[in-house]
Amino acid sequence: MNTHFILRATMIAALYISITYALAPISYGPLQFRLSEALTVLPILYPEAIYGLFIGTLIANIFGGLGVWDIFGGSLATLIAAWLTYRFRSTIWAYVSPIIVNAFIVGGYLSILYAMPFWFTILSIGFSEAIIVFAIGYPLIVVLKKYKL
């Protein structure tokens, strides 16, 4: 790891935390629309994003109020999704990975914590994640590739 790698990972973590916290009313809960999840596609271009997203999610979820489930469960989901996004970076699976992983892991524990139907929370999280990844994350990758940022 060099300084550039660590700096980019730190910037991604800070962005994730800032966006999540600034939009807290829509970033937490069983019906969430976490715009910071657009950053989950960054491992397509930057392997250091795996670390930044993991740390960013960990810290952002400390402020979410759901305790250990969200702090560790959400962070683990992000770590898995970010690694899969990097692993499949040349395929559509890079975009689908965070949708599926978050839908099942985050949606799964949210259904327990909020005593809501399992499939409702799975579909709710998956649907919001899909909108964010394809409406914001995909264009973000296109722009970053075009300008080689």
Automatic annotation (TrEMBL):
<protein>
    <recommendedName>
        <fullName>QueT transporter</fullName>
    </recommendedName>
</protein>
<feature type="transmembrane region" description="Helical">
    <location>
        <begin position="38"/>
        <end position="60"/>
    </location>
</feature>
<feature type="transmembrane region" description="Helical">
    <location>
        <begin position="92"/>
        <end position="112"/>
    </location>
</feature>
<dbReference type="Pfam" id="PF06177">
    <property type="entry name" value="QueT"/>
</dbReference>
<feature type="transmembrane region" description="Helical">
    <location>
        <begin position="6"/>
        <end position="26"/>
    </location>
</feature>
<keyword id="KW-1133">Transmembrane helix</keyword>
<dbReference type="InterPro" id="IPR010387">
    <property type="entry name" value="QueT"/>
</dbReference>
<feature type="transmembrane region" description="Helical">
    <location>
        <begin position="118"/>
        <end position="144"/>
    </location>
</feature>
<keyword id="KW-0812">Transmembrane</keyword>
<keyword id="KW-0472">Membrane</keyword>
